Amino acid sequence: MYRKILVALENSKADSALLPHIEQLAKLAHSDLLLVHVADGWVARNYNQLKLAESEEMREDREYLERIATQLRSAGLKVSAHLALGDPPTEILKIAANEQCELIAMTSHGHRLIGDLIFGSTIHEVRHRTSIPILLVRAGR
After folding, report:
1. pTM score, whole prediction
2. Is the pLDDT of residue 141 over 70?
3. ∠22-82-1 over CA atoms, to 5°?
């Protein structure tokens, strides 16, 4: 059913709520996993246009993705990882479409109205701009 699952990671403690669900689902469905983190700092957003050097944030994000990929591979899963740069919802949707993902998995923080206005909501944009099913797991508090 889900041959390829895009797993949107934040490089935060919230990921620890999502990963056990994804690991079990991938094993049951024999899914390939595509781990994606979108670096969205100033350097990441302007990296290609201004031909900038990779930032410390980007290096840490790449290391984090590879560490999680290694853990999931050791559990017997087929995993690839991709560090995207720019606007998180736009990049998640573009990668999901280009890679023909059949499920997008993300964590929810439950900000509600004021928090969404202040922090923005990647989930809000992703769910309104895709026809791909989305699995949301509430991040721990």
Report:
1. 0.88
2. no
3. 40
∠ CA 104-110-112 to the nearest 5 degrees? 120
Task: Report pLDDT digits (tens) over 110-131.
Answer: 655 554 544 458 888 999 999 9
83 alpha carbon, distance to own chain's centre: 9
Write the DSSP assignment of 19-72 as a string of letters: HHHHHHHHHHHT-EEEEEEEE-SHHHHHHHHHTPPPPHHHHHHHHHHHHHHHHH
Mean pLDDT of the residues in the chain = 89
Residue of 12, 22, 140, 34 whose CA lies nearest to 94 = 34
Residue 80's beta-bridge partner residues?
Answer: 34
Helix (H) or strand (E) holding 124: helix 122-129
Instruction: Spell out the domains of the chain, with CATH numbers in brackets.
Output: 4-138 (3.40.50.620)
